[in-house]
Design a protein that fits this description.
Helices cover 94% and strands 0% of the residues. It is built from 3 helices and no strands. InterPro entries: CCDC40.
């Protein structure tokens, strides 16, 4: 019987340890969720402030006050680069689509030629068959 009590005691200790580990895990997961939410909030605030700076009179005033520091040139240069990159991506996609269209047109033309060639072969085979049939009849 002493081993039975010892097993029960070990089981209780194990259960207690498991419960405490589960509590720690939930605590850490809550901390992680809060941290992640704060990062998302900060990212949203950053995007909103960039939007405000770029699109409002207050933002324009701030930008004009930074002219001495040459920061507006960098900002407009970055905007131009972003627009150029976007245009380049769009041109790439358009060219890719045009290439696909041209490839499909070429495939269609190739198939039409194949069909014409097969029709011609069929006609020739029919003529050969007809001539052979006529020879057989004459014999």
């Amino acid at each position: 019987m002493p081993s039975y009590y010892k097993n029960i005691q070990l089981s209780d200790i194990y259960n207690y340890d498991i419960c405490s580990l589960k509590k720690e895990i939930t605590t850490f997961s809550d901390i992680y969720k809060k941290y992640n939410n704060k990062l998302l909030e900060l990212n949203n605030i950053k995007k909103y402030s960039e939007y405000i700076l770029a699109n409002t009179k207050v933002g324009q005033n701030i930008m004009s006050s930074r002219v001495n520091n040459n920061e507006t040139n960098n900002i407009t240069h970055n905007k131009i680069n972003k627009k150029d990159n976007l245009l380049n991506k769009m041109n790439y996609q358009i060219n890719d689509l045009l290439n696909d269209i041209n490839i499909k047109k070429d495939m269609i033309l190739h198939e039409e030629r194949e069909i014409q060639n097969k029709k011609q072969l069929i006609e020739e085979e029919k003529k050969i068959y007809y001539t052979l049939k006529m020879r057989k009849i004459k014999l």
